[in-house]
## 1
Amino acid sequence: MLPLMLKAVSEKKIKLEKVIELMCINPAKRFNIFPNKGLIKRGSDADIVILDMNKKWTVDRNTLVSKGKNCAHLYFGEKIKGSINKTIVNGNVVYDGKKFYKNRNMNNFVSPIKKN
């Protein structure tokens, strides 16, 4: 989903700040795990995606990593500008643009914050 949102950013259909709101902040709020998740600030988990907004690539069945490959076929051949360079979870690199890394700290369950 993020690459398609980056495509929309490159086509000036949506601002990157709105993508952050829709894909990070709002889901964290919805699942009551904000501000531990959803933004970068002191006290929040160190989860971040580093992007290359200029890299161009084509969605390809053989290189796409997704649990939704049955839906992704709609986008095979789609040209995208904007790519994920690195993903960091709990301060640990779990994806470096080429390879995924399993880390024992990345599967920590985040409990919803109890409201009074």
## 2
Amino acid sequence: MTDRITSPFGNFTPAREVVAGHDLSGKVAIVTGSASGIGVETARALAEAGAEVVLAVRNGTAGAEVAADIAKTAKGPAPRVELVDLSDFASIRAFGQRWDTKPLNILINNAGVMACPQTYTADDLEMQIGTNHFGHYLFSLQLAQGLVQGAQASGSESRLVALSSIAHRMSAVDFDDPHYRTRPYQKWQAYGQAKTANSLFAVGFHQRFKDQGVIANAVMPGGIMTPLQRHLPREEMIAMGWMDEAGKVADGFKTTEQGASTSVWAAVGPELTGIGGLYLENCAQAVAASKDNRFVGVEPWALDAEAAEKLWDLSVKTSGIG
């Protein structure tokens, strides 16, 4: 990959350092899942650069606490909280109706669920792909005209950031049975499928909106201990080498602020101007996956244009919007 896009930042650069020097005054950003984990630090970095940040969260109380904390150091307006449940199309549609076509400059699809027991959304979709992909698909499509309006009003491109994961390497999207109606449920396979879908969504969205001033990229934030692990028993995390018996987190894991850095770079990095449909990690374009290193790299199925189109068609049929 001779023309691979990189930045001055690395694996453990804090988000504040990535956004330093950027003036986001007058820009509007939405961050889903910003009541906890790296979503908080993503929102904080953007607010401290002057952006008007909307915290799109399920838990209004937690969101209000985060908003109040971020407001202490925000350069621009205090963040505001909007309720949305990404596992419920009705809740997502209500958010879209409230937002309408108001200008939007940055959309970071950060919320997610990982390795949960077999459960289904309010719309009878497997919970992981139903929330992580189909929920964000509907959410993003309802905000697409806002992103276009934001680009036109500001004179600079709007950006969509879709959080994926190294777990995409566990599974491509199974188009025959994405919701585990007939095949045995495997929580990590289901998570991997959902994270592949997040990357393919960025490919499809970028293709459709790049000529209207909106770029989209997928992001692997890194390994971070956050509430995302809520469904994992401590014993399982120890067995996977994520922590030792004493609870010490393994080397290589990031803090939440470090984990937010690639999302923030995808949102503001000048190296990405006009460039989309990529999978980013550690503040750079990812290298191709290899068997020699299972902790970095992107599989070809996560950037495959044909699979992205197939997923888009399925998403239109599932959500009723396209």
